[in-house]
Amino acid sequence: MDTASSHWIGVLAYQEHDALHQRATTFLQQVGWEAVTRICSQKHQNIPCRLQNNFAVGRFNLVRHLIFEDGIEWAVRLRLPELPSDSDTAKVQDVELMMRCEIASMKYLKQKTSILVPEIHHYDLNPNNEVGARFVVVDYINGTTAYRLLMRKQRPLFTFGTEEQSAKLKQQMAQIQVELARCQFGQIGSLRHDEDSSEFTIGPDVETGLGPWKSSFAYYHDVVERSLKSCASKKELNNRQSFAAPILFKDLVHRYCSDDTGPFSLANRDFGFHNILVDDNFSIVGVIDFAGIMAAPKEIVGQFPAMSGMNPPAPGIPPRNDFVKAREEEERPLIEAYVALLRTLAVGPEAQIFANMMAIPNSLVQGMTDLACHQDFVIEQWMDSFVYLLRESVLKGSQTIPTGNELAS
């Protein structure tokens, strides 16, 4: 039987001398695989199991497929050791806390929504356990990420199967976003789960280590301060534009956004076609990677999926060349169709979030997200856009909130 895991390519995903390749190779040799199969067998009525040879490896995790003699299939996801470059980042990398929040998010979504989240069977977050790594055991989902399947089928970029298949996939994506938005909390931050009381609460954001927050302005203030500290601590980012962009963002937030005090909907900051699993017909069979889940301001909830070919242009900035102009014209109907989908599906309190997806506040958040890559042309584009929005606000004396399709162009 051909399974999705039979296409996992392991370390071949990286060049041989790449640090990621070397780390995965060493890690594979050091893990106590006998302990993995023994623990999993104990968690499944002592039924023997075997690990499949193929494995998948990413930036943070290595995953192997495990099959029991009764036909049940699980996946074991092991946390890879940090690279030296990881320890230099300004991000708060409390690995255990990050994994606990991800586990809490998976449990919450499994209990409270119909989103196709794998069941968690066991986890051990002690890096010095007998396996030799932190790990989580979940149901195996026989699917491939939509983006990888697109590449494997050699489809044109962002063409997810036939027109009918692509339309169905995007409707499923929109449904996930809407269902997340219906989950609401009184604070901004990451999910926590109390195993004794089984209660879910909001704690500090795992990406920043800050919070929780009771208002969107307080959240954006801390995000900007953290961004400035990141720029100050890294020589390669220590330039005027890297410093100016967050400061401009904070000013523009006060000009164009309202200070929301909740309730705050769930959003997955890493939601995209790279972390949904699909079958061979591009129909969603599961969702993976939940570290980016948080209760968030509405401008974050109302963002487009990543790696989708739906990237609204920066407000006020004309295309810098014919290629970009053609791409924007190609993406415009995709963007409009997806927004229409969301507006059709969102019929509760979350409806207003998606009604304003093309508004200036959402563009500001998109800009700050894009700026995190620190690419020169991206910085230049969004700096020009932020200055344009500031000029427009000053000239018009605008202190109102743009709504609907009020995207500057």
From TrEMBL:
Residue ranges of every copy of the Aminoglycoside phosphotransferase domain listed in the record: 99-294
Coiled coil: none
UniProt-listed InterPro entries: AGP_Transferase (IPR051678), Aminoglycoside_PTrfase (IPR002575), Kinase-like_dom_sf (IPR011009)
PANTHER family, alphabetized: AMINOGLYCOSIDE PHOSPHOTRANSFERASE DOMAIN-CONTAINING PROTEIN, AMINOGLYCOSIDE PHOSPHOTRANSFERASE-RELATED-RELATED
Name of this protein: Aminoglycoside phosphotransferase domain-containing protein
Organism of derivation: Glonium stellatum
